[in-house]
Amino acid sequence: MPSGMKGLTVFVADIRNCPNKEAEQKRVDKELAKIRQKFTNSKSLSGYDRKKYIWKLLYAFMLGYDIDFGHMEAVNLVSSNKYSEKNAGYLACSLLLSENSEILRLITNMVKNDILHGNEHQTALALNTCANLGGEEFSENLFSDIAKLITPGASRPSYIRRKAYVCLLRLYRRDYDTIQPDTWAARLGQALQSEKDTGVLTSMCSLILGVLETDPNGWDDLVQPAILTLARVMGGDCPPFYVYYSVPAPWLQIKLLRILQFFPAPTNTTLLNRMNDILYRILSKPTVSAHAPHHHGKKRTKADAERLNRSNTEHAVLFEALNLIIHLEMDCDLTTKKMASSLLGNFVASKEANIRYLGLETMARLASDPDVLPQLKRHTELIIGQLQEPDISIRRQALNLLYGICDRDNWQQIVDELLEILKGSDVLMQEELVLKIAILAERNAPDYTWYVDVVFKMIEYAPEVVSDEIWYRVVQVVTGFDDNTDNAELQQYAAKKAIEYLNDRFADETMVRLGAYLIGEFGHHLQSQLSTSRQFQTLHRHFPRVGSSTRCILLLAYAKLLNADEDVSEEVLAVLEEQQDSVDPDLQQRAVELYRLCNESTATMENVLAMMPVFSEKIQSNNPLIRRMKQASKSRAAPRQQLEEAAKTEGVLFKTGVGPAAKAEEDDDHEEEEEEEQDERNGRRDEHDEDEEEDEEEEEEDEEEEEEEEEDRRNGPRSRGAAGGGGRGRGEADSGPAGGGLQLPPTAPGDIQGMWKNLCITPQGPMFQSNSLVIQLRHEYRLNQGRIAINYANKSPNVVVQFPSVTISEAPFMRHQASKPPDVLRPGETYTHQVMVDCLQPYLNPPKYIVNCVLQTPQGPPSNQNLPFTLPVCLTKFFSPASLSAEQFTSYWESMSGPGREMQLMGPLASGFVADVQRAAGAPQQLSPQAIMQRFNAYLSQGFNLAIIPLSNAPGVLFGAATFHTGTPQPNDPSKKVVVACMMKLELDPSRMMARLTARTAHPQVTTSFAQILAAYFITPQQQQQQQPEQTPQQPQTASLI
Amino acid sequence: MIRCIIVVNNQGKPRLMRFYDGTPHERQQHVLKTVYNIVSRRSDDLCCCFAEDRELFGDDHKIIYRHFATLYFVFVVDSAESELGILDLIQVFVQVLDSCFENVCELDLIYHFDKVNYILDEIVMGGMVVETNAEVVMSALQGIKKLESSQSSFFG
To answer: InterPro entries from the xrefs (chain B) (predicted)?
Structure first.
């Protein structure tokens, strides 16, 4: 069958015949050049030609070629009277234009016209486009016209009404005010009951679900119509062609069952009984099951396929009914519930992989119901068996389910099985396993020695995936909580275990870290069995082959051993003395501190190096690992309890377009975080006040302490030991190791620039990813100094990577010092390259980090790669937040205007940032001003280290302040370093989606760099307009500070 | 909602791509490659039709696909969609293609790129399922065909 457009057919055939990507590129480029040429004289083009070219553009667009022209021709086609031309035009607009494109304004009127006056098919096209593009422009201008299409008595064909409902949902997602329950609840309820067309009902239900996802409050009037309609459809009130494999209108049934999951069980008993009756009928209906999976080479027959489709359809309704049962909890008949759990048992054992997968998933959600948990636990063996499945999707679901049904009765069986699986799993699965095993063992073990055993086993089996968070938690548990239990026995046990494992010469680094911590802290319990000197030796033999941060932990452990037993003083002091000359500044600093401390008076030493105090009870119940497990699931059947909790919180929260369940959880998180932040802020402010009262010298001391505390917080338990013992317990503010900072979406593996940009505002992340080599970077900063750990991993099974050179470019604005770069990495090996930096002057572009590597595969010649990275050490890394009061900020801000001190940039919001706002808000269309401001706030405070100043109540403005630290001594007082105060203001114009950024600092280079760095994240680059350019002369990057 | 629909052949060449979640064009090819890598490595006989990639799509998603001869039909959806419902929908889509092209094969999708897009728009609009009945979709297509032939000129 010909496509009707010969030119298009030829073009497609040419591309198909291209032997490789280069040839394809050439062919496409040629075609695009030709079309561009044709479009410059578009007046002489016939509609047919225009349509043909547009289709060619769309084909190239699908192949990934950037199409930045032809938009106007698409608009022209939309106004054509010919259907095929109009269609091409509308589709091109849907695909090529984004919802904020200016060009959309040009077609709004045509869309309106087609909706109101076009024939049925033209209206349909216009509605398709409106739904595909959405956008504020359409929402403002078309909503009421489309709503008219579905008014009772509008007598539009059902084909149009179906599309109109879906269209309304798309526009509603752009503007939540368009559909409010006060007018729409009754209207939709009525329509549900009176509408006869199954297709229209299905679309209507889509709209209702979309609205409920945002906010289920106020829509209770829909419950009764939904139940009645469901009963009607199940009873067969449905035209024969909507009966799909003997199920009447399965999609409609599914949607109605889902609608009911947004509401509490009806209080009206007749309705409730009706609902229970429906559920019973669905569950008791027999289903067909497909044959056993086929062996390779044997073809599926048509009858098999039919059977599979039929089984899909029948089970689709069944699974949705099960979701409703889970949602109803106690309000569901017990017999039905029992039926549900036995059905799920059958599903988990099903021969069909799809049914097994969904069975496992659904059972995991049913597991939260205590009525059926005992029944579900009978399937434990069966579920464990699923962990051996070849399909990772199924294994994941099985793991989730085991986590859900694990309790004190079966934990040992489950944890043992999981540990077995851990040995042979791939990394992805291992990460999930390790986290879940750690939580289950801590929660269920009869005493914590079991838990300690389990964690040691995990480190033994899968050392790479046991994150710091997991062993920090062990430290917390073994140290004990403020609940009056004596942990001495546990501590002795843990220290003994550590010795056992560290007797292995090749113990993994993670093991050494945990071991060093446990032996340093609790080794004194073992003195009667093993001399302190032997303990020291067991630790120290690992010293030469571990990285810098582990060595720091080791040094601290030695000092603690010395504090507990004078006998080792000679050995320990010798090591500390030696490390005072270490090239690694951290290690050197630690060695100097500890050496001094050990030579101090006994009292001081005892105070500082004594055992850590127990952790507060709040930390016991607030396991950070569990928080990591939380995952938002939008619009899924939320157990009623969650719904009710959510309903109690403020209604406003729901306006942001996330499902109730997810929102409630997120909300929890927010509260906790806010609390922590507040604690921190209060803490800082207190100290600040003190500072003001005391004289300068003391102020400096205070600052030092503050820094130490700051470091504590970042480094987790190890330095808490060093500083915490001195009577400065910080109580509840320290809830374990600090989290990961700003959360950003992952970048594509090839997007080096994107990864770099993310790294500039996060503490760690990927820097480079290929099939063989993966480079991750982690960095932390204190004042003018930064420490960067660049981790190289060879992920390939057979490629050897050599590194002829790894160099860091010299720059006058930054001093750097690096450990030995990697030399050669064999498959599976990793290496960490440490780089320390010291910022001396302001700058814009950080130093380059150039990696030259050679990949040697078993076959074929070696390939040489030059990777010119830039260190993600942007200027704002050397910022520390300055929590000024509103008055202080205002007076500084005002004094800081004038040439060279201010820079202002404005333009449309950067598309990357907009996408991130939507992602963070959890809904693709979510772009409320509040969501944007929240994200601004997160970037500024977590990404750029600014303190947000509570200055204005105006909704679209944020103020921030920070101190930029350098290592350059002040000329008039060399004992102090040069610092620069930095302030900024960020304004949002939500109507035009524009942002304006104003940066003010005392130094011209700082001003421009600061503004440009921030703008790179928030404002579209080509369109950034610099305001008052005469005020900000560009300075060379190396401009002197003073 | 449906976040994207990708039809890709056994070699990883795209035959149809539609994104409803505003994925920027420069990222679409990356999504295509990643999704292809995931589904093409899964055995038809041993694996279910569901997969995930949290790194790419975040927490709230499922990759739901079916493999017909040389083509994978992949839908990426959030948890508001029923998994089996989407599998049925893929079946409906293929049924309609089959009735339009009489024993549809990959070549039909390649050379009738425009028609395939029409058909999809009749089934999914803006990421929402709008029609699930093959016959209704077919009758809409018949209507369009009639309209087009009445408007066809010398150029076709």
So the answer is: AP_complex_ssu, AP_mu_sigma_su, APS3, Clathrin_sm-chain_CS, Longin-like_dom_sf
